[in-house]
Every structure is written in structure tokens, then in C-alpha cells.
DNA sequence: GCCTGATCATTA
DNA sequence: TAATGATCAGGC
């Protein structure tokens, strides 16, 4: 991959340089082969952008740009510029929750500073022909953080009370809790309704498309 | 299994 | 057609 950017400005300007290129063009530069589609390569676009931007973390549980504390997120965009998918943030802790607060939560740190890179995502555009858009370096506004915190506290309360299996994607205005695993057979431990420990599918926190649409729109209007 | 990168595919 | 629940690949 390219050298890791040393400053926020360097990272942002490098991201701006990618705007307008197709994924095929970026793949050639990276020495990668564009897959026919994303059915078996769901993370390919993210990995391609990681290469171009010099993300350092790889698959480690730390920010993509460790030194800068910045997380990289590619986001598939429709013809009208709206996100086509929810955005996975991180796995939800289901055990060992004593002392966990919004302030010290994994998700809050993950979302503290995010470099959003929109990429055309309509399925009728061949993968290699999709173009990269203009990047956005984002931190939650006070209002956005308040809404995130509200949903997070509601969801975590249910988890602590042993109600994880009663949570659906409909809970939360901006943040969802949904299964996150290789398949339905993956199981992890969680609190049960009667204080016992149960086995359940691992869950992840996802940002709803309406929320990420707002972010992109707000930045575009400014 | 957990974590990274996410999108797929079917339903409501 | 948007949203939900399910799933794919790779490294450790």
C-alpha cells in the first residue's frame, strides 16, 4: 500500500485526489483484480481504498490511521447521493458490562473521527465502472452525539437486563443492533432474561442510512 | 470465535 | 423499494 499519511491534511488531500476515479482505475494502480461483483468480496472496495490511502491497521482492532485516530469508512451511494446500506460500526459487547459507559465505549471512540468516502453503489453499475466521490472528514456534532448516545444507552440497557434477543433492528433512531457474524451458526455468550448466561448470535452496531445521509448532506450544504 | 472490511437476499 | 436479518472472506 501507499505510505501512511502523517497528517490529517495529508490524508484528506490524498482522499480528494481519488475522487472521480473508477474502481477499475484504482485497482490497476493497486495491482488488484476487480472482482465480477461483491457477492463473494464484500469488503473489496474498502480494502482498495485502504491501499490507496495508506491505512495502517489492516485487520487489527485499532483505527485505520492509528497515529491520526481516524477511522476510514467507504459508503455506497445511490444515483441521488443517498446511502444504499447501513454502516457497520463495531461489535456490541454482550458480557462484562459493569463500568461500561457511553464516555468510555468502543463505539464512541470509533465514531469520534471518521473519513467517509462515498462510492457509487448502484448494482446496475458494473463494479469496475463505479466512481469514487468526494471525501468527508467527520466528527459527531453535539446533536448527533446526543442521538447516538440515547440509542446506545437504550440498547445497552436491554442487553444488561438480558433482553438482547428481544432487540430488533427497529430499536434506535440512528443506531441499530443487528446480527454480525460469518453465519447463523456463530454463537457467543450473553445475559439471559433470568440472570443466566445464554448463547446468542454476535451482534453489531450499525448506523442507519437516514443518519449517514444526514451527515453527507450537511457537509455538502456547508 | 472475534475482529477487520462490508453487501446480499428476502421480506414487509 | 427500503429495511431487516443473514451472510462472505481473511487474519489471528
Automatic annotation (TrEMBL):
CDD domains: MutH-like
Record keyword Signal present: no
Chief place where the protein resides: cytoplasm
Domain DNA mismatch repair MutH/Type II restriction enzyme Sau3AI: 53-151
Subcellular location: Cytoplasm
Organism superkingdom: Bacteria
The UniProt record lists the keyword Nuclease: yes
Keyword line: Cytoplasm, DNA damage, DNA repair, Endonuclease, Hydrolase, Nuclease
GO MF, one example: endonuclease activity
Function statement: Sequence-specific endonuclease that cleaves unmethylated GATC sequences. It is involved in DNA mismatch repair.
Membership in a protein family: Belongs to the MutH family.
Protein name per the record: DNA mismatch repair protein MutH
Gene from which the chain derives: mutH
Amino acid at each position: 500500500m501507499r505510505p501512511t499519511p502523517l497528517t490529517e491534511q495529508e490524508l484528506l488531500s490524498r482522499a480528494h485526489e481519488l475522487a472521480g476515479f473508477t474502481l477499475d482505475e484504482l485497482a490497476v494502480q493497486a495491482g488488484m483484480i476487480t472482482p465480477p461483483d461483491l457477492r463473494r468480496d464484500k469488503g473489496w472496495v474498502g480494502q482498495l481504498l485502504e491501499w490507496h490511502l495508506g491505512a495502517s491497521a489492516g485487520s487489527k482492532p485499532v483505527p485505520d490511521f492509528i497515529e491520526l485516530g481516524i477511522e476510514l469508512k467507504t459508503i455506497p451511494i445511490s444515483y441521488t447521493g443517498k446511502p444504499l446500506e447501513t454502516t457497520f460500526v463495531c461489535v456490541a459487547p454482550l458480557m462484562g458490562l459493569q463500568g461500561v459507559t457511553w464516555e468510555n465505549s468502543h463505539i464512541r471512540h470509533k465514531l469520534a473521527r471518521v473519513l467517509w468516502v462515498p462510492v457509487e453503489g448502484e448494482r446496475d453499475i458494473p463494479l469496475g465502472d463505479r466512481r469514487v466521490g468526494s471525501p468527508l472528514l467527520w466528527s459527531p456534532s453535539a446533536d448527533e452525539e446526543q442521538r447516538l448516545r440515547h440509542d446506545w444507552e437504550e440498547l445497552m440497557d436491554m442487553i444488561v437486563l438480558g433482553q438482547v434477543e428481544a432487540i430488533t433492528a427497529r430499536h434506535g433512531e440512528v443506531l441499530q443492533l443487528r446480527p454480525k457474524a460469518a453465519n447463523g451458526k456463530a454463537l457467543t455468550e450473553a445475559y439471559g432474561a433470568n440472570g443466566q448466561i445464554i448463547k446468542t448470535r454476535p451482534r453489531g452496531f450499525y448506523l442507519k442510512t437516514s443518519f449517514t445521509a444526514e451527515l453527507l448532506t450537511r457537509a455538502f450544504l456547508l
